[in-house]
Design a protein that fits this description.
The protein contains 5 helices and 3 strands; from the N terminus they run αααβββαα. It is elongated. Helices cover 65% and strands 17% of the residues. With 144 residues, it is an alpha+beta fold. A hairpin with a 3-residue loop joins strand 1 and strand 2. The chain has a 3-stranded antiparallel beta sheet with strand order 1-2-3.
Length: 144
Amino acid sequence: MAMPLIEINDSALHRPPASEEIQLIHDAIILPLTLVVVERNRRELDRKARALRSIFAKAAAIVMLQIKADLTTNTKVLIRKGITVCLDNSSSGNVSYRYNCRGFEAAAAFSHEYIRNEINRRISAYNADIFTKDASARSIINRI
């Protein structure tokens, strides 16, 4: 089925993404990478026998649950807004992603150092949330 000409010629369809949409694209790139790092760290915690291991493992589980929830919400909004994001290529110092926002296509490149710093910043923010929302954290811990 063909798209109506009115929609093809609609200039709003091909305008660059707004700042909110740029943030959605950024989150679509960073959140999955953050989740991988937290999962890897949790597996490492599970392998080591330490006195506080269970506390750290539960904290990692809480962070993973919140990242997954944020990732699900972000993905739903991206779909609703007609935005797609995919890995373009990776060079020695940068990782490039392509995105399509209502017909407007562009690329975004990030250095490995930027990605690493952003992942650490996100993990720190999620960890801080655990201790500022202690009542909700307790209910999550009880489910784990």
